[in-house]
Design goal:
- Two copies of one chain form a homodimer.
- With about 900 residues, chain A is of the alpha/beta class.
- The first copy, chain A, has 35 helices and 33 strands.
- In chain A, strands 14-24-23-16-17-18-19-15 form an eight-stranded mixed β-sheet. An eight-stranded parallel β-barrel of chain A has the order 26-27-28-29-30-31-32-33, surrounded by six helices. In chain A, strands 1-2-7-5-6 form a five-stranded antiparallel β-sheet.
- The model of chain A has no long low-confidence stretch (mean pLDDT about 90).
Chain lengths: ~900, ~900
């Protein structure tokens, strides 16, 4: 970037909400509210370009500092007060404000401008020495920790010491003199830690605070958060410098957060939290418990009504739920921030549908405001209301859902236990940003302090974790690793607990769960509530908009039936290997142990009628809709006992002189078939070519099943899919065999049996040579699980535990490529294959049947790249339908 | 193809050797010789286009039949005889002739035109009733087997029966009456087997024979041969219809095959085989033993001299060794075929260099006439001349080399035993085309009948298999599975034998081997013979022509030293994992068993001085040349005991109450590190990122080794290579760590240590995103082994035994993609990566270090695609140098 004299500092009067990239979210909205004439304390924004320049070069250029000082001087002139003025000092806040909200991640410094002289002026002007010294104490503490990098616990220790010396419990009980002592102690601490005194020069304070906010963009916790939320790392943050207003100037002051609708349920009507005689930070930190917003009506009717007017004004202007931070200073309302509010999945659907009903937005816009992730979360089960349960306590219902897991008391333990496959519930007195990895690892989080706007609540909602917070009956003893209630109940680390994020209830033990109302509706049940009604409206609208068809991965008649109820228009992947499990496993043993030739043919003949019956079942459920049957894919040894276990059993039996003849024969076969890398071994089409009659038997069973259905008046639609093809020669060979089988069955049954034959594209070479393969294929179905494994060269089973967390931590990838399609690598192969395949065979039908078929972001890629359908597990079908509809909104 | 009236039949007078594609090899050379005025029996060629049309549509169109008949009529007119004429019949041969020679693979029908009437005319005209009836008998036998598909053994049975009835041993002892009886028996056999009599209409015979030749293009044995020889499957064959001349008309007649130089040794001077009173087919089939060509000088001086003149004329014209088939009919020489002759590797080098010395061709042309495959075969060891050995017999030295293996008596056994890893020697009385799979599977072949032009000899030379043929002291009893000599020695199936293809000697047992003279010369020894001198000349010329550099894959100082002697200009791949084997294996155990943190660091500290010493050794040997060191690649559990073995040991010890504490700890670690698919697990760069300090320790050891060498006046040149990179982020992270290590070592040693850092490109995603990776890479080295495994989705270890032979048999691939680079799939990734990488980083240095780096055909691809170097095992370096030179010949 050119470091020349471009304008990088903007007064609130000069911006607007269309400048999100430049001014960040907070700055743009402050500007917007200023232009609307709302009571916003004046100030200016240092923009994100300045931040990116700073991050690239490591310093604030003199031109920028001069520009900041010019804007500050104008602000001082306008307010008639000066930063650091010993008579009537101006105080400013210095807050971050990035393009995308990163709650709790970035730094803030308040009360900038105070020093040893100005504190006296503030005392005089405010008429409260206590307030002035408390503000100075807060500045030293915040600046020391944030800007100077001093361990915040050192300040907390000093505070505790003074309180204990003075014999008081609450900060509010400290006198002016106590606070002066504390200021002295803090100042000494700063000088000792930094080797220089606290900067008395107010402009230096401001410059350092701006720098510290910029620096906070690059902290580890911020990076982790951005990865989790898919926020690019190179945006940078803006900094907002704003005149301080004080909610902590007595009982006619206070701070709060409010929402224009209920962000948890979506219910209409305002709600929020208010904390009298407090700064906004006290509300967010959950240090004291808040009162409901409606109580403000009793405390200060005028301010309450002014706030209601602001709320109505903002929701009308933004045409969406707004989340507003405000402060009342001596009975005067100030709006410090607004943004389109975060919300639970329930609320997202409810609000979007309500706004359509209210005529505020249209259905397309409503659809754009809900996501497949949110719908997926609405499909989670919740606790069975009729199950036995032992209530421990009720806290604040801060993030919905139902979580069952073992209690852990810190982030590290949460990560460790979750890493070995345990479900955990993280319990903390209150959380801070360092707990983020634990919050990510846990199924749910429980805190004893803080309201619905506390750190734990905000982050849990963002992550889709269940959260109960402010459960103040609980005593969290992290050192002793136990949780105690007032009633004497004790829960230890490792004990099972259940959290209901919708009701705020906490139960001991594991409470059984029931399906969500959305799932019950999808299964044919009633529209149980407004949320289900909203889901139904938006899902129907998505169906009218989408170009992509949605099929299901279903291996059994019951899965197929559910998929159909959930809106699938076919089965995109019916895995036949699932038909060899359970009690039929011995059939594969027979096949493997049989001699080549007659023995194998006999084993296949036993399989035939069973497969035929399987297929009749699925074709019956999917009558009239296509069913894509994949021929046997896994290596045969997958159906046999594990080599190590069997070897141990045989060796031990030998030592004990109790050899088992069957085990010995089996061991020989298992050894013969053993593969170093089964994923890269004899499977898929290779098996079909090497084991004579295997694929033919499966095809014969399917074609007879089709004939059976036709003869009984059904409308079976089948497709045969060959797995793991790497070269057109494989498909050509197998296709010839399958077509011969079709001709034989047609002759035998006297019926025409239409049977398109296609292939999985799951080996990189298949994608690279898709043009040649397409000449023998009626359809392609991308097997993006295997394609991802081979393109990256790692197997999901082996690597997710071994190094994915390291890779996510170190930013090697932003998402697991097994969850969201790696567009750059795997996506390039998909795109190449679609284009080359269609060039050769313009009628080629193309879909995807890997797990990515139900992943919201991947669905958009598949739509862009021109697939005909996605196929996913039955429970992902509504998600895929919704996202396919949303994707269509962006199409011309 | 358009089936319209294009010209598809060509008289010999109208063609030439530039029409190989259209007329096939035999037809083009017959035309060429006709134009040179050599004594060629007249005839015409039905071209390859007609064959391709026939193969596509399954019939000969009427237009083509009419065209054939027109040419035949002209031939009859010119010869003054008619096909099937009862007074003076014309006889023609119908022979295949494809673009590339496929000896013994395709069909031939002789004596076409005879029938029950014409045989009488032939008897009168030739003055020999016996000759006429013998010719008719031959037609019935050949036509019956080839055109009508009757089992040839049925004819042999009839022949045996007549001979036994008449009490004679040799065919030649049968009288005219015997032959009439035989013709009657054969005619009955044909009628019985085909349901219709032998076709008496001569034009029908001709049409059917042409059809049969076309059909023989598609037989399984022809397909197998083409795959082996890399001949495309869609060329088709031409058919040559030529007036018959007869070598079997008495003692002044005969047939032979001759070469203008010795095709086995390359020695100048004619050589060949002659069989008096025989047709050419009798020579090739090796039914009777031939006499040396020089004997013809005594038998028929005039014909011998005429032949010498033809040979001189042809070698001069073709400027290369010619292989000529001739027949002498009643003292008159006819030339039936010529072609540039096949030759042994020795002869190829010798002849090419001699022709340069003789001023016939230049060095570029000489280089184009030898191949890396041939050079590779010259580097095979031969039998130690001083070793003890038991001579069994001496046969004809038909294809050079030294083969040791177990005796097998049929093709199936050869394939079976070779399939399970045994070296086998196939022994047969004589071979036929059905033995081809056995010849491919065997190390060598031994026959008791047939000369150097017999089927076994020709095919073995083509395949590079050792062959001793015509060992007529041996009695091959395939039914009893034993081999007997006249001296009473018996060798049974499974016994070890040794064949010396250069001397024709056969030994009992396994004779120890010694290095080839070429290898001794490469190692600094003398130019022992003319072949070594020729190799030296052509290798030097290749070095002056080639653009590609050739490096070595070498892990030890002694490998590096040999590579340097063999002409490597650097080490392209030094694998560091080989430094953790043997007695150092326990160091990895320590690393794995150590606690994270201090314990691991201690284990790495123990590795450091050992690695440093390893690197000093290699840098000393490669002084002045680059050494590319690959950081640790394999998963750590590869250095630990096998899970199954260890589990059995621990379980058995437990049952026997003798538990071993170390084993138990080890088992826990092995279980923890166990991977389902180690190839797709925690290895390569992933290990470097997950195990702190591992790569840094290796880099530190290398940089200190470099500094050590610099301080002692050496000229070390190093490169650090990161394995298994899939995304640019991995390389960026590791590069930052390695550069920090370099700065530290530079500071510590006070030296500048140039150390380019690059990556293997061996994961498909690395190739697909090469542009981004190139931004952090100084070089790419394609790891085509892993790249092939991942692009195809199979692991070499697991699949080669399981299905590669099926795949080769069924034509899924023509070559194993592990031996010759799969240009279509893997090659596409290589090309993409080179282009994208150079676009971003024009100074990017690019090479290959997979085994394909030493494969002749792959070298040409790597040259075409613009790599800077290939790196291969030391023994492949001369091959790569030669092929890189040959590749340069085609460049503008």
């Amino acid at each position: 970037m050119e470091r020349a004299g471009a304008v990088h500092v903007h007064d609130f009067e000069d911006g607007g909400r269309d400048q999100l990239d430049l001014l960040g979210g907070k700055g743009a909205n402050l500007a917007e509210m200023t232009r609307l004439g709302l009571p916003v304390p004046p100030g200016f924004t240092v923009d994100t370009e300045a931040c990116r320049d700073y991050l690239a070069h490591g310093d604030l250029p003199p031109e920028l500092l001069a520009e900041i000082d010019r804007h500050l001087a104008r602000l001082e002139q306008r307010m008639g007060r000066g930063l650091g003025d010993p008579v009537d000092p101006l105080l400013v806040s210095v807050r971050s404000g990035a393009r995308f909200s990163m709650p709790g991640m970035m730094e803030t410094v308040l009360d900038v401008g105070l020093n040893d002289h100005a504190v006296l002026g503030l005392a005089r002007q405010s008429g409260s020495a206590r307030f002035a010294w408390d503000s100075y104490r807060r500045l030293l503490q915040m600046f020391g920790a944030t800007v100077l990098g001093i361990d915040p616990h050192r300040f907390a220790e000093q505070l505790r010491e003074v309180k204990s010396t003075r014999g008081v419990a609450q900060d509010l009980d400290l006198t002016t003199d106590d606070l002066k002592v504390l200021v002295g102690a803090y100042s000494e601490l700063v000088e000792k830690e930094c080797g220089r005194p606290f900067p008395q020069e107010p402009r230096e304070q401001l410059h350092l605070a701006i720098r510290a906010v910029f620096d906070s963009w690059g902290t580890d916790r911020a990076r982790v958060y951005r990865r989790q939320e898919h926020i690019p790392d190179d945006l940078g943050t803006a900094v907002n410098v704003q005149v301080m207003v004080f909610g902590n100037r007595g009982s006619s002051s206070g701070s709060g957060v409010c929402f224009t609708r209920d962000a948890a349920t979506g219910d209409p009507g305002v709600y929020g939290d208010y904390l009298p005689n407090a700064q906004g930070e006290d509300v967010v930190a959950g240090i004291r418990n808040t009162v409901p917003l409606t109580d403000l009506g009793q405390l200060d009717r005028a301010s309450y009504e002014a706030l209601l007017e602001v709320m109505a004004r903002l929701e009308g202007h933004y045409r969406d739920l707004c989340d507003i931070e405000f402060t009342i200073e001596d009975g005067r309302l100030w709006v410090l921030q607004t943004r389109v509010g975060k919300r639970t999945p329930q609320a997202a659907f409810r609000i979007a549908a309500d706004l359509v009903d209210e005529g505020v937005i249209d259905l397309d816009e409503a659809l754009s405001r809900v996501t497949g992730d949110q719908l997926g979360r609405l499909m989670f089960p919740s606790f069975d209301p009729f199950a036995q349960r032992e209530l421990v306590t009720v806290g604040v219902n801060a993030s919905p859902g139902a979580a069952v897991g073992r209690l852990v008391f810190d982030s590290e333990t949460a990560q460790d236990w979750a890493g070995r496959g345990e479900d955990v519930v993280l319990v903390r007195e209150e959380t801070d940003p360092d707990d983020l990895p634990g919050l990510i690892a846990a199924r749910g989080v429980l805190t004893s302090r803080g309201g619905r706007t506390s750190h734990a609540a905000v982050v849990a909602r963002g992550l889709g974790r269940t959260c109960v917070c402010g459960a103040d009956e609980l005593e969290v003893d992290a050192a002793a690793r136990e949780l105690r209630t007032r009633h004497g109940l004790r829960l230890l680390e490792g004990d099972l607990v259940s959290l209901d994020g919708s009701s705020g209830e906490v139960f001991a033990g594991a409470v059984p769960m029931v399906d969500s109302p959305v799932v019950r509706w999808l299964e044919g049940g009633p529209v149980a509530d407004d949320v289900v009604a909203a889901v139904a409206t938006l899902l129907r609208h998505a169906d009218t908009r989408r170009r992509l068809a949605v099929r299901a991965n279903a291996d059994t008649p019951s899965d197929a039936a559910r998929a159909r109820r959930f809106g699938a228009c076919g089965v995109g992947l019916c895995r036949t290997e699932h038909m060899f499990l359970g009690e039929r496993r011995h059939l594969v043993e027979d096949l493997v142990l049989a001699e080549e030739g007659a023995g194998q043919r006999a084993a296949l003949d036993t399989l035939f009628p069973l497969q035929r019956a399987d297929f009749v079942g699925i074709l019956t459920e999917m009558d009239g809709l296509p069913v894509t049957v994949r021929l046997l894919d896994p290596p045969l040894h997958e159906f046999l006992p594990d080599l190590t276990e069997l070897s141990v059993r045989v060796a031990v039996a030998e030592v004990q002189s109790t050899p088992d003849a069957h085990d010995l024969r089996l061991l020989a076969a298992v050894r013969r078939l053993h593969e170093q890398n089964p994923m890269l071994g004899l499977r898929g089409v290779r098996l079909g070519i090497v084991v004579p009659g295997l694929f033919a038997t499966q095809a014969r069973a399917l074609l007879h099943a089709m004939a059976d259905r036709l003869e009984t008046g059904g409308d079976p639609v089948i497709e045969l899919m060959v797995p793991l093809v790497a070269t057109h020669e494989e498909l050509r060979l197998v296709r010839a065999e399958l077509e011969q089988v079709r001709e034989e069955v047609e002759a035998e049954r006297g019926l025409e049996l239409a049977c398109p034959i296609g292939t999985m594209v799951e080996v990189p070479r298949a994608a690279l040579t898709a043009g040649r393969i397409a000449a023998s294929a009626d359809f392609f179905s991308f097997g993006t699980n295997d394609l991802t494994q081979l393109t990256w060269g790692f197997s999901r089973d082996d690597v997710e535990a071994a190094f994915f967390s390291d890779y996510l931590d170190q930013g090697v990838f932003a998402d697991s490529p097994f969850e969201t399609l790696d567009v750059e690598g795997v996506g390039a192969l998909v795109r190449t294959a679609v284009e080359a395949g269609r060039l050769v065979n313009p009628r080629l039908h193309v879909g995807v049947c890997g797990e990515h078929g139900g992943d919201p972001r991947s669905v958009h890629f598949f739509d862009d790249v021109g697939l005909d359908y996605v196929s996913c597990s039955p429970f992902r079908i509504p998600v895929a339908r919704l996202e396919a509809g949303r994707s269509a909104l962006h199409r011309p």
